[in-house]
Specification:
0% strand; 66% helix
């Protein structure tokens, strides 16, 4: 049964690659350019305590999703954690933070 489930997930993921506009956006935008532009404005002050910042590129992608779907922080966080499409669009970087 597990093999069938694994196959179904792989098929769904392959279908997603073809039909998902987020895949197009992910590949069409130079996300690293945002890091270059914003890196000096984004400081990680963990020496003073607190949790380390998420990478600049991840934060830009999250803000993009928020804008695209008209969501607040909590909504986009749930969206990314629960849906494979958005995890792929943000390269799963959000999941490690």
């Amino acid at each position: 049964m597990s093999v069938l489930f694994d196959h179904a997930i792989k098929e769904k993921y392959n279908t997603m690659k073809i039909n998902d506009p987020l895949i197009f956006v992910k590949n069409a935008i130079d996300w690293d350019a945002f890091t270059t532009l914003l890196n000096d404005l984004y400081h990680n002050d963990t020496d003073n305590g607190g949790r380390p910042n998420a990478p600049v590129k991840t934060m830009v992608k999250v803000v993009f999703l928020q804008s695209m779907f008209n969501m607040v922080d909590e909504q986009v966080e749930v969206l990314i954690k629960n849906r494979i499409y958005e995890q792929n669009a943000t390269s799963n970087e959000w999941m490690s933070h």
